[in-house]
Amino acid sequence: SLPRNEGQRVQCYSETLEEQQRHRLKVQNALRGATKRGEMSLVFQPKLSLKTLRITGAEALLRWKHPEMGHLSPGLFIPLAEASGDILAIGEWVLEQSLLQAVTWQQRPWVSDDFHIAVNVAARQLARPHFAQKLLKRMAEHQVPHRLISIEVTESGLMQDMANARHQLAQLKEAGISVAIDDFGTGHSSLAYLKTLPISTLKIDRAFVMDLEDSDTDRELARTITQLAHAVNCDVVAEGIETAAQAAYLRSIGCEIAQGYFYSRPLPADDFAHWCAHWAPDASSPSTPTTP
Ligand code: C2E
Ligand code: MG
Ligand code: MG
Ligand code: MG
């Protein structure tokens, strides 16, 4: 199922398989060169400390507005771009834009010592020779302090070529760039890798967060994932928090970082900066955000 986001195209269930197939092909063709034509942009979603509600960073998320098809969901086009290989060029663009944004924001008063922009990196990007080395080179060129950038990779992204992943992640860690496992628990995971890969964060997928209020099982799963993360010295980010009750529960089980519509939707860069500048958490009731 597609995540429903800000005004994005919602899959229409009456579409026939053939229509879906045709649409996919059209999207796949339109992907090539979309960044060069200026159709792509990044939005930024705040990450906050569940304990203090301080801003600890942002996740950079890709948006695509095609001149005819309109807004297309990353849930649709990212897998197509991964399949076609276009994700390599797109991913380069995402990294470049994220570095430029980090440079622009680095002196802002709301950029704390631990603030970082988290960039999603696809399996095929990580699999490229010298991924880490090239990223570090580019950061040096733009004079981006390493701590301002982190990356998110999925479990499948790590499993495809574990030896290479270990090699790339070790270089990033050495340079002070932290790595999160995205959508944790939704892929074909092997817990063994947690022990051996240099990872600093696990992101609990929205699938485990959305029904926390109604499901004993999901509460138990979220708690277990958090304990597992702590057992391997990782911090925990919960994504897709939409209610105060979800935030309160996640805080009570020791989850460190929160992300979700409850705090803010992903925002264009200027709106994100404005949101951060006006973010005034009520310290007396840390689960209650005050909308700027
Ligand atoms: P993800 O990395 O797990 O990102 C979180 C997704 O959850 C985002 O969807 C975000 O907008 C959405 N989300 C955040 N909070 C909430 C909430 O409270 N409720 C709901 N319903 N959704 C929430 P988005 O932006 O549609 O991206 C979907 C996926 O596409 C991402 O999942 C990521 O896997 C991929 N993606 C997005 N941008 C990039 C990119 O630049 N590169 C790569 N390789 N993948 C990307
Ligand atoms: Mg992510
Ligand atoms: Mg995620
Ligand atoms: Mg997810």
Automatic annotation (TrEMBL):
Protein origin, superkingdom: Bacteria
TM helices/strands, residue ranges: none
Domain EAL stretches: 24-280
Designated name of the protein: EAL domain-containing protein
Residues of the full protein shown: 295 to 586 of 586
